[in-house]
Write a structure and sequence with these properties.
By secondary structure, this protein is an alpha+beta fold. The protein has three helices and three strands. The longest helix has 26 residues.
């Protein structure tokens, strides 16, 4: 009988970070960073009721769709989305500086239609 090496059958313990594909890992990082920027760095009062709920990244990592909810009526939503779109270049620059990605994705803010 041949002796089997203990290392040949070693399987690393599962970790949620290792199990996720790269676009999903980067999307999670983007969601956290963009939430911080929108919540604490942008001083536009129209952004007070905005919450970043999700980020979906294209497979090639070039485009990020950032889903947001806005507490308020339709007019407040439109105003907040206009403010986000105006702030997009700043948000993208800050994300690039903070996350040190090879290429910072283009950011598109979209309404999260929950409920």
């Amino acid at each position: 009988m041949k002796h089997k090496s203990a290392f040949s059958s070693f399987i690393p313990p599962p970790s949620s970070l290792f199990q996720m594909r790269r676009p999903e890992r980067v999307a999670d990082l983007l969601r956290e960073e963009i939430s911080q920027i929108v919540g604490y760095e942008l001083e536009d009062p129209r952004l007070t009721p905005v919450t970043v709920t999700d980020v979906r990244l294209s497979e090639n990592l070039k485009t990020a769709r950032v889903y947001v909810t806005v507490a308020g009526n339709e007019e407040e939503y439109k105003s907040a989305l206009a403010a986000l779109r105006h702030a997009t270049p700043y948000v993208r620059k800050q994300v690039g500086l903070s996350l040190n990605l090879h290429r910072t994705p283009e950011i598109q803010f979209v309404r999260d239609r929950v409920g």
